[in-house]
Amino acid sequence: MIGRWTEWKRFPKAERGEHVEAPIGPGIYEVRETVTGALFAFGSADSVAQALAALANPPRSFTSWFRFGGPAASPNLEYRTCATSTKAEAKIAAEGMIDRRETFLRGAA
């Protein structure tokens, strides 16, 4: 069974000690830029909380340790989630949303 989308929440900043508030189980997530509304990330996952946490703390490459200067400014992001009963259900729902979005964009072009 597919739940409802949560309200948009500000993406947590690790340096402030903030945490992601998301289902530990399967579901769908959507991340967008706050100012423009541009889609930043979208997908289904076994654990929505882990998927969003991975976006908040991307792994650093070996060469990034040798760059000078501070970390690149990350965009101001917000996210929402939708819980599902199973990973398969989340994947089907996400694919359906992608298909509808593509159909809409083709019609708008």
Verbal overview:
The protein is globular and about 40 Å long. A four-stranded antiparallel beta sheet has the order 1-4-2-3, with helices on both faces. The longest helix has 22 residues. It has 109 residues and is of the alpha+beta class. 28% of the residues lie in helices and 21% in strands.
List keywords for this structure.
four-stranded antiparallel beta sheet; 2 helices; 109 residues
Order of helices and strands: EEEHEH
End-to-end separation: 34 Å
The proportion of residues forming helix, as a percent range, comes to: 25-40%
Report low-confidence residues grouped into runs of 5 or more.
Answer: 69-73
Radius of gyration: 16 Å
Overall morphology: globular
User: What share of residues are in beta strands?
Assistant: 15-25%
Biggest sheet overview: 4 strands, antiparallel
Number of helices: 2
Average pLDDT works out at 81
> Order of strands across the widest beta sheet?
1-4-2-3
The total beta strand count reads 4
